[in-house]
Amino acid sequence: MEELTTPVRQQHKFSVERLQRYLSVKARVSNNDTLTIRQYSAGQSNPTFLIQAPSNSYVLRKKPPGELMPGAHKVDREYRVQKALFSVGFPVPQPLLYCSDFEIIGTEFYLMEHVRGRIFRDLRLPGVSPAERTALYVAAMEVLAKLHSLDLASLNLKGYGKGTGYCKRQVSTWTKQYTATAHRDIPAMNELSNWLMKNLPANDNEVTLVHGDFRLDNLIFHPTEARVMALLDWELSTTGQPLADLAYFLMPHYWPTGLNIISTMGSLKGIEGIPTVSDLISIYCRCRGIPSALPQLNFYLAMAIFKMGGIAQGIYARHLLGNASAPNAAELVTGPTMDGLFLQTAKGRAVLQQVKDFMRQYVLPAQEGVAEYYSKHAQSPQRWHSPKVIEDLKVKAREAGLWNLFLPSISGLSQLDYAYIAEETGHCLFAPEVFNCQAPDTGNMEVLHMYGSEEQKRKWLEPLLRGEIRSCFCMTEPDVASSDATNIECSVRRDEDNYVINGKKWWSSGVECDLHCRLRVYMSWVSPKSLSKVLGSLEDVSPEGGSNEGIEDRVNAGVGQGQPLCHLDSLIQALAEFTVSHEDVDDVHCSTQLDHVVGQLSEQEYSHNSQQDTQGAPLPVSLHPSCTAQCPSYQGVAQHHDQER
Fold first, then answer.
1. Measured on CA atoms in the order 440, 444, 445, 446, is the torsion positive or negative?
2. pTM for the whole thing?
3. Domains plus CATH for the chain?
4. Which of the ends of the chain has fewer CB neighbours closer than 10 A, N or C?
């Protein structure tokens, strides 16, 4: 089971030396032994660790750090019930010691033997034959029936639970737990709580020892046999109505097939070899010697789902506080789930969590330094350079695999997956740039990726994907409402071996008037019926921007940049004004080469199918060599603002 462990997570680290000194006195662990400690990836509530010494292995389970709900995480109760069960031969790990001294590892904990065997984290049991699936589920039912058949008096657990009235207490307790940890109101949870309280079973007098979290992934099976070696995780155990445990185990059979949030909560519908609900109930009742007609099973199923909602909310609340026990705590919340809407893929959830962690650890702490940099250099040429901290963060993000997340063919994410990531990076002005996911580069790269020739991809797309160059998008014009692309007046037409572009653009996002923008995208008309995107490359501008004289020569040849436009006196990137002309803003035309067209051009249309105007004519994409000029009259740095993308 070592493959189910990870290195100890930062928030759960403790002093190994103090623990070893303690165990040398209380257990058979020598001070000379080298202890290897790893953390189990499961265990959403109480952190659980595998401790390996040369002669033996142990499992340590501790209370999590930080502020906790009253009455929760009672590891002393877990130790007590396991000790009682082990004494009567019920399959649990042998408990070895309990420690209430916070000085040892920071919180109270208990130690138990390490039971070797199989733990199935996926309830659907992939890789297991249908016959063995059946046998494993039957074995689980037999253990549950055995637990509920134990004589409470013989267990010496006086005062362990409150006896009758279990269902009312459970509904009340989980309502309070959910309310205390809810980060937003969910009307369905409130309605379910009210329904449960109004429909309590008339006969709630049966009392047995109940586990409280009886699931297949809390069982250790024999390495080769369908036999239960140990039942784990007794945190929610108490005395009460046994049918609550049964319904909790049956819950995945009723889970919607499209709502597989995590494998331990996935639907079991249609899985070959897994017994039906009626078969499992029949096995359980036969083992207990009770009638198989179970009254009000629907109530217990509803209570199980409500309880799971409360547990998930508590785990997510601890995730938000930073003291969740398992690294996948955030997977329990995926946003709106009515009818399966807005569900991320498993990879999308994992990458989103990586992005959140990266933002919290590296990006957000850098905000103050970045703001100081741009404030300090607001009136100097240095303002067009990214501060070193941003460049360093780019390297870190790329090394972490958090690079070009917007492009599905590279990232392996869906567009919906990326929408959540974009929302997260939107919390910081420069965060998209850190992950090479900044607009308008993302849209420009997508056009080249989908429709560019191999040479165009080599020349522009690959450097953009590597983050070596930047691009801009020129759509907005001074004389029309440019949010409606059909209003655009800038045009492009064929002239022998070239295309002639005419027009004026302003509020052009991504220009930055700087040294890294090597590609411009112009939205233009090809004819009265068809729009075009015209891309201009700054291929002759050196990495350092070249001389002003050289830039001016190229501007006179046809592309001029007016003064940068300041938006709300904000910092970081500029929105600039462009005129495509020979001499001034009234004489507007310049030419671009035929091989700078993305897609194929006919007399009436271009084969670019990603966008169309209102008449259905496709939008072509062509490439146009141009250049940039810096304007000395600039009075401020404008905020990066992508109005049209």
1. positive
2. 0.53
3. 2-113 (3.30.200.20), 130-326 (3.90.1200.10), 344-437 (1.10.540.10), 455-645 (2.40.110.10)
4. C
